[in-house]
Amino acid sequence: TNIGMEAARRLSLQGKRVLLACFNRNLGFWLKKHVDDQGLSGIVAGHMHALLRDRISSSSFAEDLPAATGEGNADLYGRIYFDLGALAIEEANERFDAVVIDEAQDFDPERLADVLKAWTGGKPDARSILLGDFTRQALYGKSADALEKLRSAFAGAPTFGLSINCRNTRRIATQTD
pTM score, two decimals? Predict the structure, then answer.
């Protein structure tokens, strides 16, 4: 999360319009509050489903979303939000120079790629930064091959692995162990 926040901050300071999104609702609220508190006006932040819902609600596809809510949550949150969201983004012609996604391991890679392509307009100079922990933090039942699926959906994107746990101090890790 800190890496994503810092990347978004630096990109916005370069005059880029940045989207900073995540999977978890509470983290999304925190990201939005942090961005607002810091006065980072070039960044739109929040959790992905709320961002997509807002765009769908403001589009000609708004009536399609309530009809879809009778379906299972997996279909609603895993497919419908992304399908209608990509259409709504295209309709509004909303574009970002950079998109930073935290908790990438919890998204369906193909759906995420579609939405990011809509938000960046497919521009070759647009940046997409995906952050995820595919070994310890895949909380929403994504398969073990999620990283490979993500690499396939974002073909050619460089991948970097971090081997040092920067999330907590050694004392906290020892105490909770």
Answer: 0.82
Alpha-carbon distance values, 130 to 1, 12, 48, 105, 125 (Å): 11, 17, 13, 9, 16
Question: CA-CA-CA-CA torsion for 91, 96, 98, 103, nearest 10 degrees?
Answer: -50
Q: Which residues pair with 100 in a beta bridge?
A: 20, 129
- Other beta carbons within 10 angstroms of residue 41's beta carbon come to 10
Query: Pairing state of beta strands 43-47 and 127-130?
Result: unpaired
Q: Report whether pLDDT(150) > 80.
A: no
Closest alpha carbon to 100 in 164, 161, 48, 168: 48
Residue pointed to by tokens 């880029």: 16
pLDDT confidence of residue 65: 83
Compute the distance between CA of residue 88 and CA of residue 118 in angstroms, rounded to an integer: 9
Quick: pLDDT tens for 5-47.
Answer: 999 999 999 999 999 999 999 999 999 999 999 998 899 999 9
Residue 53 contacts residue 73 (beta carbons within 8 Å) = no
Residue with tokens 């971090």: 162
Question: Average model confidence (pLDDT) for the chain?
Answer: 84
